[in-house]
Amino acid sequence: MPATLRSSSLAVAAVLGFTACAPTTRKPLTPADYPRTRPELTRYSETSHYEDLRKFLDSLRALRAPLVFGSIGKTNEGRDIPYVIASRPLVSTPSEAKRLGRPIVYVQGNIHAGEVEGKDALLALLRDLSFSSKPNVLDSIVLIAVPIYNADGNERFAAQSVNRIEQNGPELVGIRPNAQNLDLNRDYVKAEAPETRASLAMFNTWDPDVFVDLHTTDGSFHGYALTYSPSLSPAAVFGGFYARDSLLPVLRERMRTRHGFEVFDYGNFISDEPPARADTSVREGWATYDARPRFGTNYYGIRGRIGILSEAYSHDSLARRIASTYAFVSETLSLVAEKAVAIRSLSARADSQPLAWGRSPDSLQIIAIRSELIATPQMMDVIKEDLEKTGDSSLTQPGVPRGSRRTGRFRTIRMAVYDRFTSTLDRTPPAAYVIVPEDTAVVTLLRLHGIRVDRSDSAWTARGEAFLIDSIITAPRTFQGHHEVRLKGRWERGLQTLPPKSFIVSTAQPRGALVVYLLEPESDDGFTTWNMFDGDLKKGGRFPVTRIFDLSRHGRAANRRTSASTTQPLPN
């Protein structure tokens, strides 16, 4: 690998910014010859710095590992974000990968840079798979690994007691946000960080069937080496349900029987959470996190693909956290290889069943744009560790409340498990949304999400609906630099007169569900939430996005319709 990773524009980073290492016929390496990660070299007392990771990838290249190396883009501070492609035969472009007819799996580590084991486990797994001479998952899938997504945050090293107070080592770790102080796992809708924009470009270019995001949980003291989650949004009607019902239960069993790790659905004990997180009448239960697509795996499910969240247990040692993450990713890749036909078919179904107005009611896909935790949970066995009071607040353990200590005693308790969400507001997709000509920033962001946007030549009319705003609810406190907005109002049907140069966003495209989620004014995590329409909002006014039911009327009214991909500039 060159001293500096080659970079390119976001739109073509995945196909131009790489160097390939072809297989070699020399004597196969033995594990004793393998390069070692920084945790392996330091007996798991330290994690990799950015330069450690680059040197490790350099060493794989020097040993002619059959891998492709590249950069998905640059961070805010100008660091390249490396990616590695592994498959047998080796591929270096999306078209080559598609011709193999295999699932493409995108695994990302270090989105929160203090959560370190995903980064180091992914490096070790890449090494072991690529140097193995025996048949393995690389014969059945294409793996894209991004081990250090938040490279800037990784380099903000400080004591674990400062940067990750609930984590059991290593002593020095990076920080949660990027250099802009943005939480990259809250940025997938608004896409303000260069890291997010680079990631979306990779999604659009390579179109992975499965996205795995590697984290470390902090919070409850439970008995699991790792917790996991599918896409939680009810709008993730393809990959979300399939991962929850068909993949993750199998992974749970294999982690136990093959590796000796107990794993479970991600969550925290309700007794450890603020009252607003769950029904306060429930004294003991287990509740998952948030279903909104600002979170990467939720977002990826709404794109019509499979998203899987992995959360190593922060109270375990670094060595155990790396081992459990390594095993989970390895088993995930193996299971995807086994289920290749079903997973590829699922992706094809998601793309071939776009939303469209005018279908029979039975075939219309209803999109959930707001949701809440289920009211009727499952009763399941959950493993909990007992803490005991010491009576001495000066005695502390990493991540343990003052005056308490871990006992190593675990109990299995039957309790309510809130592991999924139900819709509180559904929307039937129109044929298209029409955006006023002035909202070019919205159109730019839609295209960044891989959504096709067309444009009309002339004024035209169509049957449709306009949203009239009854109230604007603005959050008093900022979150990620924004005062989040929520609208209440009503849709009124009628003949809509639309100006020339209007932007038309059809829902009859592969990411039609995402179109609905982003553009509906009452969505709980759309463009309205993130202030994209603030200049056009007033009580009693009309929302600047219109629904239309009949695109054929537009087709007759306009002389020409231009189509723009995610990489084309905006029309003047």
How would you characterize the overall build of this protein?
The protein has 572 residues and is an alpha+beta fold. The protein has helices at 13-16, 38-41, 50-62, 94-100, 117-131, 151-154, 160-163, 194-206, 239-259, 296-302, 318-338, 340-352, 440-448, 512-519, 551-557, and strands spanning 18-20, 68-74, 80-86, 104-108, 142-146, 158-159, 172-173, 210-217, 226-230, 263-265, 268-269, 285-287, 306-313, 367-373, 378-389, 404-418, 421-427, 432-435, 453-456, 460-474, 485-498, 503-506, 545-548, 561-564. It has three domains: 10-352, Zn peptidases (Aminopeptidase, 3-Layer(aba) Sandwich), CATH 3.40.630; 374-422, no CATH class; 430-564, no CATH class. The chain has 15 helices and 24 strands. The chain has a nine-stranded mixed β-sheet, sandwiched between helices. A seven-stranded antiparallel β-sheet has the order 21-20-23-18-22-19-24. The protein has a four-stranded mixed β-sheet with strand order 11-12-16-15, with no helix packed on it. The longest helix has 21 residues, at 239-259. The protein starts with 12 loop residues before the first helix and ends in an 8-residue tail after the last strand.
List the helices and strands and how they pair.
Blueprint (H helix, E strand, L loop, with lengths): L12 H4 L1 E3 L17 H4 L8 H13 L5 E7 L5 E7 L7 H7 L3 E5 L8 H15 L10 E5 L4 H4 L3 E2 H4 L8 E2 L20 H13 L3 E8 L8 E5 L8 H21 L3 E3 L2 E2 L15 E3 L8 H7 L3 E8 L4 H21 L1 H13 L14 E7 L4 E12 L14 E15 L2 E7 L4 E4 L4 H9 L4 E4 L3 E15 L10 E14 L4 E4 L5 H8 L25 E4 L2 H7 L3 E4 L8
Parallel strand pairs: 4-5, 4-8, 8-13, 9-10, 12-16
Antiparallel strand pairs: 1-2, 2-3, 3-5, 6-7, 9-13, 11-12, 14-17, 15-16, 18-22, 18-23, 19-22, 19-24, 20-21, 20-23
Helix pairs in contact: 5-11, 9-11
